[in-house]
Structures are given as structure tokens and as C-alpha cells.
Amino acid sequence: MSARNPAGTPGFALHLHAHLPYVRHRDAGTFAEDWLFEALVECYVPLLASWKHLADEGIPFHIHLSMTPTLLAMIEDPVIGIRFEKYITDRLSLLEDEANRGVPEIAEAITLYRRRLTLARRVWDGAEGDITRLVRELTASGHLTLLASAATHALLPVLATDEMRRLQIALGIAEHVRAFGDRPAGFWLPECGYGAGVDAALADEGIKYTILEAHGIAGGLPGGTPAGEAISCPNGVVAFPRDGELSGKVWNREGGYPGDGRYRDFYRDLGYDDPARAARILDGFDAPRPTGLKFHRITSVEIPSAKKEPYSPREARLATQYHAAHFLDCIKTRSSELAKQSPGSIPLAAFDAELFGHWWFEGPWFLESVIRAAHLSEIEMHSLDAARRRAPARVVRPSPSSWGSGGYFETWIDPANDWMYPALHRIERGLARDLRGPARNDAPNLVPAVRELMLAQASDWAFLIKAGNVAEYARSRFLEHEGEAVYLAESRDPEDPRPFLFPELAAVLERVRREWNVRQFAGR
Amino acid sequence: MNANAKAKLRGEDRVDILVRAPGSLFVYWTLDGPSSRAERDAIGDVAFFDRAWVLRIENVDRNERFDLPVDPHAGRIHVDVTPGFHYRADLGLATLTPAEPFAPATSELPCAPAPAIPATVVPVGLVSSAFRAMLGSPTSWVE
């Protein structure tokens, strides 16, 4: 099947995947919780505000969005809400302190940050701390299509058991339904990771379509699928190929738009330039680390951090206009190329949502420019759910694949992090065996043990250990959850360290266990 | 969790394969299950671990195999293979004979995929004049 564009005009589909690992800690002020707050200020709120603005203007657009249960759990946590308010207040104080220095070269950036922080507070307060309300509104108006994703962002192909793959998917869907109301037709695979058994688990949970890396479909059996063409997995789940060339315009570290010298430099930060001043104003700031306040532009990748030039939001914003225009040129070219190979195929660009605003500070401006320019030039933003219904699909068994470096699983199974899997799989197999039988009174901690195991399965830990930047934090988080899972599985005293996290877990476990038992009796 | 499941959490003789990439497998093993325990009880820990352990990698589709000497304590290894075939791993002793038939663990049978990464990359080029003309003024949803 192709993702058909009946009118034959250029078009594309866009998916953004919003995810952070569960980084809520008992104590406030941890650097990991700052990841969430920075993403809220720089990414989630600006994107939602931008989309709301466009929708109110009557500009048509269509974006696919997934938000993981770990991210949703943190956003809806009232303690996080209180800490976010403090984060904004502290950053505004630090910003005023910086403004009082009277450095004219960064005045424009200070104004921008002040507005961003104020906007975040206004949107957060306006939604009473529930920004998923904005997501629901944009979904109801037809501007967003929501996809579910795995419960804790496990890389599904490297799990040891079908049972745990199924639970990651089932809980991801259940938490999605709890947050947004509607059952999703689409599912975003963490890290775009596909392997044997994944599509069967998706089909078991009623999922209709997903997104794979293009080489996962090109390398499938039988071969010969034209580039850009969606396929049907043997069990009926439709898989759309992520267009590597189009996505690479934004994604590629070298040559991608975010590397332009006019854009804000991600690494140089007030927290490194003047940690003593940051520590005086920010609670919990006990060592040099990012504050989110960055006043320099990339300038050039060859230039050392100390010699970066001051950041000009005005110039950066203009750059997003040109890059948006170039991106749409590429969409036109790509549409034409794909149409020659498979008439009506739609190029699909998919990204981490955090790329837009967090890693690439100007990303929300870029996306808004893309949407406006697409509207003016009659480039359609397509719905995957509509596309999957339009044409018959050729049946292909996809190849294992991911969107990580190398295209397979080398990032998550590396000499730096491979020690995680024997321990992880041992507890996974043990709990899976327990889940296959009927519920028992002598396993009082099955639900919390599975929850801790799922938290240990997050692909983030292996990724961060391999990347090395915050490897020790990732290692300790993995060991904490893996150790808790083992302890809870073997303890006969009822206890639950995180009873508030994933309210749907007990019901999902019960439902899936019941279905397994029925199948077992039916001989499947 | 029942006693049987708890025992399985604590001790197994098994070898597992994870596919890293078309030409690379990650193989790991544990030797603390009933089979190993019985052998260790019979000959002692030193003799048990001090023997010539090998990991046998079998290309099942081609009926080919090769052996890699391994340290049983290491517990894991990365193995380069030819893409596109099914592989099985056996952990055992280099001197397998009918008189010494100890091979405690065999993996399941995953397939290393054939590589299918497209090599073409579209370079970032110039913005067309048509799109330049189409662009409006910067928007003002926040700033």
C-alpha cells in the first residue's frame, strides 16, 4: 500500500514523539528533573502555543504526536507542578540578575527568555497544570492525531519475552486512553525499534498502524517494496516508512538545519559560565550544570565554546524561515521522487519532539514556518490513519531496525551497556513465567515488581550510559529499578514504592493474563 | 511468586542471543542452574571453571559452525557473523566426547537481518526563489 495522496499534489506526514524517562525524585532540585522543566519551557509549551495560535488563525495543518506514559505521569504529578512553578520563578530571578549586568549584546536574548518563561507560566496556569488539555483540544479540532507508545520506552526488540513486549504496549495504550480518552489506532515504537514479535503484540492490542525506519521495510521479506510505500505486516498492522532523507534535514548532526551558526548554542550555558552566581539564586545548584539560560550562538562548530558570539534571536528566527522554505522544497522533490517509484506515496518525517525547542531552540519557529508555508503553497499535511484506509497493502515481514546510529541496535547493545541485559532478562523471564499462570495470593508484589522492571527497561538508561554524559546517573537509575524488581518479586510482605505511578497497571496485568490463559486453554 | 519461580530467578543454565546488527550478535550466558550445579558438586568449582570452555556459533541455514574460547565467568561476548542467516549458540567444553558430554546451555534461533541501510543522502542546498517569495513576515505567537 502507498500512503495515497488522491489529489496528486505534493504532501508529507509529520510525526513528533514526546518522551522523557521518569525522572521525578523525592528531593526537589535534581538536574534530571530540570530536563522536564526545560522541555516544558522550551519545547512542549511553545509547540502547543504555536499550534493553538495557528488553529485559531484558521491555518490548516495536521501533526501526529505521541506522548509516553512516563512523560504524562510527570506532567500530571502535582508535586512536579509545584516544583515547575519554583523553577520558573528561580529562572526569572536569575534572568533579572543577568539583565542587571547590563550587557547590551544579550539584551535581546534576555527579553526572549523572559517571554518564554512567562508564557510557560501562563499556559501552565491556564491549563491548571494539565497541558494535556491543550493536546486534547487540538485533537478534537482535527489538528493532531495521537499515537500511543510503550509504557516506559522499552526498546521492544531487545526484551526477552513476548509477555513483556505485550505489557509494554498494553500499558502504554491504557495510560494513553486514561490521559486522552480515545483509543489510538497508531503506535510509536520507542527508538523506531522493530524486531520479531513486535507487530504481533501490536495487533493483539488492536493497533492498526505504526512507523518503521525505511530500511526496516526495504530489508523486509519479500523484498522489492518501492521506497516510501507503506506495507502490511503479516498480521495486518500497517507500517509506514520514515523517510530518512527528509528527516535527515533536521536530524543529521552534520549538515542538518540545527547546526547553522545563527542558532542558539546548546552547550554554552550560564550555569557553566558563572556557576557561583547560579548557585546563589537557584536552589539545589551545587555543581556547574545547565540552567537553561544560554546567550551564545553556535557561530561555527570549529570555534571553541569560549569564543562563541552572542545569540541574536532575530537573526535565528530569520534563519528558520529560510530553512522552512528549503524543507518544503525538499518535500516537493521527495514527493515527486517517491511518486515515480510508487504513485501517491507520501514522505513521512518523524522526530523526537524535544528536538524542537530543547536541542534545537528555534525548532518551534521552524515548524510554524513550515506549516504556514505549506498552507500557502498547497502542500498537504497528511493523516496516516486516513492513508492506511485508502489502498490495499502488500504483505511484507519487516526487518529488525531502529533509528539509532547504524540503523539497528548497536547503540543499546554496546560494550558500555551490554552488562544490563543478563540481569534484566533474568528478572523479566521470572516475572513472565509468573504472569502466565492464574493470579495467586503468594505473589503480593507482582504489580510493583512489574512496574519496577518496566522502569528498568527504559531505553534511555542504555542510551545515556553509551553516550557517557550522565552515565553514572543512568547506571544508578537502572540498578535501582532492577534491584527493586528483584526484591519485590521475592518478598512476601506487601509493599509498593510507587503506588501512584501507572494507575492502569493492575487492570492491564489482569486483562492480559486472562487473555493468555484463554489462549492457553484454546491451544494457541 | 512461588518457590519454583524464585529458584528460576536465582539460577539458570542458559545462553541467549540478541541481534545487535546484521553482522553482529551479542551472546550472554549464565552457569548457575541445576545442570551446572550438579557438575560443580561432582568435580568442584576449580575444576569446573578451569576447563576449556567454548562458545559454538552455528549458522543453521548453512550448517556451518565455529568455536570461540570463552571465559565462563565473563558471561557475555560480541560475535561477528555473516548477515542474513539464523544462528544458534551452544556453551560447552572444547573436548566434548561421549565420555564427557557436558554442554549445559543452547540458545534459541534468532535471525541476523540482511543490511538494508540506504546509502544516498540529499545534501542541504539553497532555498528556491519561489519559496523565498512565498514567505511572510515572522509570526508572533509568543515573541
Number of domains as seen in the coordinates of chain A:
2
| SS class of chain A | alpha/beta
Helix content, binned percent of chain A = 40-55%
Average per-residue pLDDT of chain A, rounded, comes to: 92
Strand residue content of chain B: 25-35%
Going across the biggest sheet of chain B, name each strand in turn.
4-3-6-7
Based on Cα principal axes, name the global outline of chain B.
Answer: elongated
Beta strands of chain B, count: 7
Give the structural class of chain B. Answer: alpha+beta
Instruction: Output the number of helix runs of chain A.
Output: 19
Number of E-state strands of chain A: 9
Q: Termini distance of chain A?
A: 30 Å
CATH level-3 fold name of chain B: Immunoglobulin-like
Q: How much beta of chain A, percentage-wise?
A: 5-15%
SSE pattern of chain B, N- to C-terminal: HEEHHEEEEEH
Domain count of chain B: 1
Low-confidence stretches of chain B: 1-8, 119-143
* CATH-derived architecture of the largest domain in chain A: Alpha-Beta Barrel
**So what's the CATH class of chain B?**
Mainly Beta
Plain-language structure description:
The complex is a heterodimer of chains A (524) and B (143). The radius of gyration of chain A is 23 Å and the shape is globular. Chain A has helices at 31-57, 69-75, 78-99, 107-126, 132-140, 162-180, 198-204, 214-218, 244-251, 270-273, 275-281, 313-341, 363-376, 384-390, 420-436, 446-456, 459-467, 471-490, 505-522; strands at 11-18, 63-67, 144-149, 186-188, 209-213, 231-232, 238-242, 348-352, 380-381. Chain A has 19 helices and nine strands. In chain A, strands 1, 2, 3, 4, 5, 6, 7, 8 and 9 form a nine-stranded mixed β-sheet that branches. In chain A, helix 7 links the parallel strand 4 and strand 5. In chain A, helix 16 runs antiparallel to helix 18 (471-490) and helix 17 packs antiparallel against helix 18. By secondary structure, chain A is of the alpha/beta class. Chain A has two domains: 11-143 and 252-382, 7-stranded beta/alpha barrel, CATH 3.20.110; 420-522, Families 57/38 glycoside transferase, middle domain (immunoglobulin/albumin-binding domain-like, Up-down Bundle), CATH 1.20.1430.10. Chain B is of the alpha+beta class and 143 residues long. Chain B has a single domain (3-116), classed as Immunoglobulins (Immunoglobulin-like, Sandwich). Chain B is built from four helices and seven strands; from the N terminus they run H-E-E-H-H-E-E-E-E-E-H. Chain B has helices spanning 3-10, 34-43, 45-49, 129-134; strands spanning 13-21, 24-31, 53-59, 64-69, 76-80, 87-93, 105-106. Chain B starts with a helix and ends in a 9-residue tail after the last helix. The model of chain B is unreliable at 1-8 and 119-143 (pLDDT under 50). The chains are: A alpha/beta (524), B alpha+beta (143). Chains A and B meet through helix 1, helix 4, helix 8, helix 9 and helix 12 of A and helix 1, strand 1, strand 2 and helix 4 of B.
